[in-house]
Amino acid sequence: MSYLDPPRFSFLGRFRANVPTRNNDLTNYDPAKKITVVTPGDWNSFGSGGFEIFGGRVTSGMNEAGELATKNSEDKLIGAAVSSRPHGADVIPREFGDAKIVDLDPSQRRLSTIFGLEVTIDLSTADDQLLLNGTMKPTCFRDYWNQRSAKGSGTSSAALMPASTGFQSVLSNVTWNGSYDMSPLLMQLHDVSQENDGQLSIKFNVDQFLLSQDPETNLTGRLIGTIGPYFADEPDHFVAQRRLVWTATAKTQEFFATPFQLDEKRKKLVFDFGNSVQLDTPDGSPLNSEVFPAILPIEGSAKLARPLVDKVPLKTTTEQLELTAGIVEADVADVEL
Question: What is the per-residue DSSP string for 173-200?
């Protein structure tokens, strides 16, 4: 099981990655070299390597029966705060970030790895409180997509990078402080996790990375993610299933690698489009708001494809992206199983 399996919940927030760029030039590692100027590619010379999640909130949750909650009245978990700050740690100086993002190989900077990230879900009401906290096992990003945006600039005056990527890992040392039964969905997730050393599966995608003169928004971007159950025999950093990919002959890359899996029990195909659908601009809308999955023959024309969803498209709008972190489900007929 993974973050694609219920019970699961999704969240939307912001991230800050104060990446150091001096290591973009390997000659900077020479102790005898005196670095006096900022060279091309060295756009954040004094980056601390800090990484943090802030301003997040739970946007939706799906219980074991496959029922989706999007309102607090449906489950108290909806609207809960999500951050990388341990509870009560707001007094700690944040200039160095809550975790670290590091390029262990200075010659391969597409393997940036996050270390020491704690994820905290703070569900508080007037009568009770629940704090769910776990430490993410170090993981590097995967599926870096330089063409997430069809155009290289956003609608704001600051510079928005047109790229996106994702991180998948496992939350360990998970603690449940308070009354987790105040949320039926969390109670289900808690019970499942106790069967698997208390661990949880987490996946989040990041995009809309901003370079700005405003210190409050500089080096920040959008973060969407999902937390779900984890089984000990599952891989930590990817879904042990097949993936959808774009065709090599496509003139434009409007889609990217898409993790998906078949839930035979619920007769559902579960897709993760969180880092898969191209946007018109870095802070814009998906170019394709509807997707029709189909089974293609191994050989022959794509015209012979059998639609998996009969004239019922999968929604890949901005609203869907931020509500469920891009996770979309489709019914599968018995004949397709």
Answer: EEEEEE-GGGSHHHHHHHHHHTTTTT-E
Q: Residue 289 and residue 295: Cα distance in Å, rounded?
A: 20
Burial class (CB in 10 A: 0-12, 13-18, 19+), 144: middle
Give the torsion sign (CA, 123, 124, 130, 133): positive
Neighbours of 1 (CB within 10 A): 17
Neighbours of 279 (CB within 10 A): 23
CA 280 to chain CA mean position, Å: 20
Contacts of 90 (CB under 8 A, 6+ apart): none
pTM for the predicted model, two decimal places: 0.89
C-alpha closest to that of 75 among 119, 125, 127:
125
Whole-number Å distance between alpha carbons of 206 and 121? 19
Q: Could you tell me if 230 and 201 are in contact, meaning their C-beta atoms sit under 8 angstroms apart? A: yes
Q: Break the chain into its structural domains and give their ranges.
A: 8-331
Position 240: which residue type? A
Task: Identify which of 28-32, 98-102, 134-138, 149-153 has the greatest average pLDDT.
Answer: 134-138
Contacts with 73 (C-beta within 8 Å, 6 or more apart), sequence order: none
- How many residues would you count in the chain? 337
* Residue 254 φ then ψ, to 5°: -85, -10
SS3 71: coil
Of 126-135, 200-209, 213-222, the poorest mean pLDDT is in 126-135
CA-to-CA distance for 232 and 236, rounded, in angstroms? 9
Residue among 206, 141, 204, 202 at smallest CA distance from 169: 202
Residue appearing with tokens 């999968």: 314
**176-189 pLDDT tens trace:** 988 777 899 999 99
Q: Judge whether residue 123 has pLDDT over 90.
A: no
Angle subtended at Cα 116 by Cα 124 and Cα 238, rounded to the nearest 5 degrees: 90
For the record, the structure tokens of 312 come out as: 């019922």
